[in-house]
């Protein structure tokens, strides 16, 4: 990606804007109160990811990135939301409140801390950056990864934890394609199959947990402790 | 071509097991394909032990000394678990539900496929995908019993280890970036280790930290170990042996291949490995002291041994690397044996609570003797293989003047020994509440005897081919 240094500034601005929106949708997932809203934020986030890949593809005229972007579009924007709607039980969608360890303003405060942290962590790496897109995409992607991990650790129900993993994976892709866009295409196809399988396996598990216990709460494993 | 056959065989076996045929066909096909896979992997290993490297597609599908050892180890353990599962699952699954038995063997073959792929695939990003698949394909085996506890354990297993895999993927992307910027065109483990000195230290160090945290979750390094006892506690006992013996070894293989890359970028990374290894071993023996369930007890012991291996690698010394590799083999064989023995005990007593298991030696001499041998072997009594491995790690630590680390490690090993042996002693020799006679399936007993052979033999004698492969692997860990 040597040509990235001579990119017209307009593409850089567009990519930075998409990155900002991408980050906002990751934060919205932390705060979402309903599963349906959560899935919509995930779709929005995936669309922004695909958009960023296409923006990277245009100035570098890289067919490789266009294929990657299309893969993201098909798997994350269309297929995974469809899988989630099919596998999750209907009552999961009608529930209004999602139980959370902290209240939402506290969570948003922690989200802000994580975003600052990821800029702090990636700052020493940016001096190595040979492409202008990396400067904004690397910290944005890492922030989304950390926000996804945070969502998993504070949510106590299956479906939001599932969305947390998928959102974290989106974040890794957002950063990953900017820094390693020339990864062989077969690897990207395999990685896409992997993330679809994550959605299928966790969706089916959620369904079976709901069938066997009547809830999708997974945070109170009191039976699996010592003593 | 052998390497491709090793991967095709379990796929074929999974397909045949899925067909609605007679019930014994699934386990029989699984055992036959595992035997064939084991023979093929021995062939690959013998070829590699003559200082060749076995290449099918350059920088994508190939085997060197380290991968060959891991491959033989995984295929041996999966063969043993296949033999064990035949009798054990026949005992556990009622005769009128052939569908459940089919599901088990399909899932079993697919998990084995993903675990075998880890050492065979030498392109790093593809190997990461194999590691991520090991979780996804074994998830339904963990939740096989379909109790609320088993489902929750499977949930924890998939969510935490998948999150770990996502973290590791970030590390993989960073490494690719570092390699690409340094002009390394191949993304294989070997090319990375050789080109490591020209890669950016900052990016490589950050990448390794993400991979360490991500895959550390998968092998249960403290503080990311919380899912491990739950998963091992609830999974069918054959699957515990597979996860602890084969899957954990495969993930360790992936991490250890990157250690020379990390050490060349930043020599202090070794101290982090020592720290996390020591922490894991220490916390695990404290948890061992509170264990009240036979499967969870062996799960904590797995965390302890993962810690010991990490510590040994962190010492950054050829002798310690040799000990770590030896310990991977010794632990995988011994821990599989322990879980299989625990399977016989649970079959005999009908409970996995330590308080309910008493005097097994009287109600079933075979199960009692197996548990006693397993307990002695895993706590590091000579002449078993674990003792030899631990001894060489301690010796390497002392010769590199890590006195404090080795002193702490010795204390943890002693506490672990005490915790395991007092419990095993009570289970084997205590006063039985009721003496129950159970007929143990012949295949389960056979698998135990076969697993015991290398577990004991390796403690006494190291075949020259294996020693050669171990030295080759230690060179890989030292960065060639």
Structural class of chain B: mainly alpha
Our count of domains of chain A comes out at 1
Largest interface: A-B, 49 and 49 residues
Q: Number of helical runs of chain B?
A: 19
Q: What's the rounded overall pLDDT mean of chain A? A: 85
Strand content of chain B: under 5%
Domain count of chain B: 1
Biggest beta sheet summary of chain B: 2 strands, antiparallel
List keywords for this structure.
heterodimer; A: 227 residues; 8 helices; globular; B: 480 residues; mainly alpha; two-stranded antiparallel ribbon; 19 helices; 2 strands
What does this structure look like?
The complex is a heterodimer of chains A (227) and B (480). Chain A has 227 residues and is mainly alpha-helical. Chain A has one domain (2-211). Helix content of chain A is 78%, strand content 0%. Chain A is built from eight helices and no strands. Chain A is globular and about 55 Å long. Chain B is globular and about 65 Å long. Chain B has a two-stranded antiparallel ribbon with strand order 1-2. The model of chain B has no long low-confidence stretch (mean pLDDT 93). Chain B has helices at residues 2-18, 25-48, 65-92, 98-120, 124-142, 148-181, 189-195, 201-219, 227-234, 237-265, 269-289, 294-314, 318-349, 360-363, 365-378, 385-399, 403-429, 442-460, 464-477; strands spanning 54-57, 61-63. In chain B, strand 1 (54-57) and strand 2 (61-63) form a beta hairpin. Helices cover 78% and strands 1% of the residues of chain B. Chain B has 480 residues and is mostly helical. Chain B has one domain (2-477).
